[in-house]
C-alpha cells in the first residue's frame, strides 16, 4: 500500500509534465505497463493505478490490443492559464482571524491578475468534502489554498485532495496541514506559540500553570507540545489533570461545561489557552463564578485577535502574524502556478503582546 500511494503520484506527474512540455503529443503512445514498471521500479498494480488516474483526467486513453495513447486535443496547461482563478477554502467566514488572511491573499493574487473563489467548511468534514468535489468536478480553478478541517483527526477527504493534485492543480495549506499529503503549508509556529505563552507566565512567577487546548485541530497538539516543553525546561511538575482538551463544538459552549473546566483548573494560578476565543470564554466563565482575572487566575491567549483587545479583561496573547501569513501563502501559490517549487513548511514566529490578563507574583 505504501508503494502504491508514494509511487503512482510520481508516474502521474512524470507523464503529465511530458505532455505539458510537448514531449508527448496527442496521439503519441505512452510507455507500456512493463516499461513503466522498469523505469519506476514498481509493481504493475501501481502503474495501473497511475494510468487510471491519467485516464480519469482525460489526459490519455486506452486502445484495446494497442496500448495507451495521449488523448487528442490535450492542453491542460493552457486551460488552467485561462481560468486565472484560485480557490480559497477556510473553516470560518467573517470572524476571528480569517477575514484578514483572506483579504491579504486576495490583495496579492488580484495584483497578479487572479480572482479568488472563497468557500467555508464551518470546520466540518462533510462541507469540506462537498467543496473539494465541486473543485474536482468543475475543474475551473488553477490552484487551491486551503485551511484543513479538524487536522488533528484522521480525515476521509484526503483521497479528493490527492485527485485534485493529480490533475496538476497545486494545493497549499494555511494555519495547519495534513501530514499524509505532500503539499506545502504556511502557518504560525504553533509549538513556539505554546512555549512563548507558557514561558511568559513562568517569567511572571507562576508555577502552577494549567492549559486548555483543542483536541481536533493539529494546532492544538503543537501548542500543547510547546507548553510541555516550557514546563519541562523549567523543571516544573506536569499535572495532567490541569490540562483540558476540548473539541471545536465544546469551545463554543464553554459556559455549559464551566463546572467541569474549573474543577480541572483548581489550584492553578495561571492558564495557557489554545487561542483567544478559548481565553475570552474562560474569562467569561471566571467572572460568572466570582473568580477574578488576573488576581485569582492569570490567562494567556494565542493569536492576538480582536477578541484579545476587546475582552472584558484585555488579554495577553501570542501574536499570530496573520497578514504576513496570508501574503506569503499567496506569493507561494503564485510560484506553484508557475511550476516553481516552494518550501514544504513556512512557519512564522509569534510574539507576546502584553495586556491586563496576567498577574506578576513575587513568591513561588
What this model shows, in words?
The protein has helices at 2-20, 33-40, 44-56, 76-83, 98-111, 125-138, 158-166, 190-203, 218-233, 248-251, 258-265, 276-288, 306-310, 322-337; strands at residues 60-63, 67-70, 85-90, 115-120, 143-146, 171-174, 185-188, 209-214, 243-246, 270-273, 298-303, 316-319, 345-348, 351-353. The chain is an alpha/beta fold. It has a six-stranded parallel sheet, with helices on both faces. The longest helix has 19 residues, at 2-20.
Quick overview:
The chain has 364 residues and is α/β, with parallel strands linked by helices. It has helices at 2-20, 33-40, 44-56, 76-83, 98-111, 125-138, 158-166, 190-203, 218-233, 248-251, 258-265, 276-288, 306-310, 322-337, and strands spanning 60-63, 67-70, 85-90, 115-120, 143-146, 171-174, 185-188, 209-214, 243-246, 270-273, 298-303, 316-319, 345-348, 351-353.
Q: Secondary-structure blueprint of this entry?
A:
Layout: H1 2-20, H2 33-40, H3 44-56, E1 60-63, E2 67-70, H4 76-83, E3 85-90, H5 98-111, E4 115-120, H6 125-138, E5 143-146, H7 158-166, E6 171-174, E7 185-188, H8 190-203, E8 209-214, H9 218-233, E9 243-246, H10 248-251, H11 258-265, E10 270-273, H12 276-288, E11 298-303, H13 306-310, E12 316-319, H14 322-337, E13 345-348, E14 351-353
Parallel strand pairs: 3-4, 3-5, 5-6, 6-7, 7-13, 8-9, 8-10, 10-11, 11-12
Antiparallel strand pairs: 1-2, 12-14
Helix pairs in contact: 1-3, 2-3, 5-14, 6-7, 8-9
Amino acid at each position: 500500500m505504501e508503494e502504491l500511494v508514494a509511487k503512482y503520484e510520481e508516474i502521474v506527474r512524470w507523464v503529465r509534465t511530458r505532455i505539458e512540455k510537448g514531449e508527448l503529443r496527442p496521439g503519441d503512445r505512452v510507455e507500456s505497463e512493463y516499461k513503466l514498471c522498469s523505469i519506476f521500479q514498481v509493481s504493475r498494480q501501481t502503474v495501473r493505478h497511475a494510468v487510471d488516474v491519467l485516464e480519469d483526467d482525460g489526459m490519455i486513453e486506452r486502445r484495446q490490443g494497442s496500448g495507451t495513447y495521449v488523448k487528442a486535443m490535450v492542453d491542460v496547461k493552457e486551460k488552467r492559464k485561462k481560468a486565472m482563478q484560485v480557490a480559497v477554502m477556510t473553516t470560518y467566514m467573517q470572524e476571528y482571524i480569517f477575514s484578514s488572511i483572506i483579504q491579504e491573499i486576495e490583495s496579492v493574487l488580484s495584483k497578479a491578475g487572479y480572482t479568488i473563489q472563497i468557500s467555508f467548511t464551518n470546520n466540518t468534514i462533510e462541507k469540506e468534502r462537498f467543496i473539494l468535489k465541486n473543485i474536482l468536478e468543475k475543474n475551473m480553478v488553477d490552484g487551491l489554498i486551503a485551511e484543513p478541517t479538524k487536522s488533528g483527526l484522521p480525515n476521509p477527504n484526503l483521497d479528493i485532495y490527492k485527485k485534485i493534485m493529480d490533475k496538476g492543480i497545486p494545493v497549499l495549506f494555511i494555519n495547519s496541514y495534513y501530514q499524509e499529503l505532500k503539499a506545502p503549508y504556511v502557518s504560525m509556529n504553533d509549538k513556539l506559540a505554546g512555549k512563548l505563552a507558557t514561558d511568559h507566565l513562568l517569567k511572571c512567577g507562576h508555577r502552577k500553570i494549567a492549559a486548555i487546548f483543542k483536541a481536533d485541530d493539529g494546532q492544538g497538539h503543537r501548542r500543547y507540545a510547546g507548553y510541555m516543553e516550557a514546563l519541562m525546561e523549567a523543571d516544573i511538575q506536569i499535572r495532567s489533570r490541569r490540562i483540558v482538551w476540548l473539541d471545536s463544538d465544546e469551545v463554543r459552549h464553554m459556559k455549559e461545561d464551566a463546572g467541569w473546566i474549573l474543577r480541572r483548573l483548581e489550584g492553578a494560578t495561571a492558564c495557557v489557552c489554545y487561542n483567544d476565543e478559548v481565553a475570552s470564554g474562560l474569562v467569561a466563565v471566571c467572572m460568572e463564578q466570582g473568580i477574578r482575572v488576573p488576581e485569582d487566575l492569570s490567562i494567556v491567549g494565542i493569536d492576538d485577535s480582536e477578541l484579545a483587545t476587546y475582552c472584558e479583561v484585555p488579554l495577553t496573547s501570542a501574536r499570530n502574524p496573520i497578514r504576513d501569513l496570508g501574503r506569503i501563502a499567496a506569493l507561494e501559490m503564485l510560484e506553484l502556478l508557475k511550476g516553481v517549487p516552494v518550501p514544504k513548511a513556512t512557519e512564522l514566529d509569534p510574539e507576546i503582546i502584553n495586556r491586563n490578563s496576567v498577574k506578576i507574583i513575587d513568591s513561588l
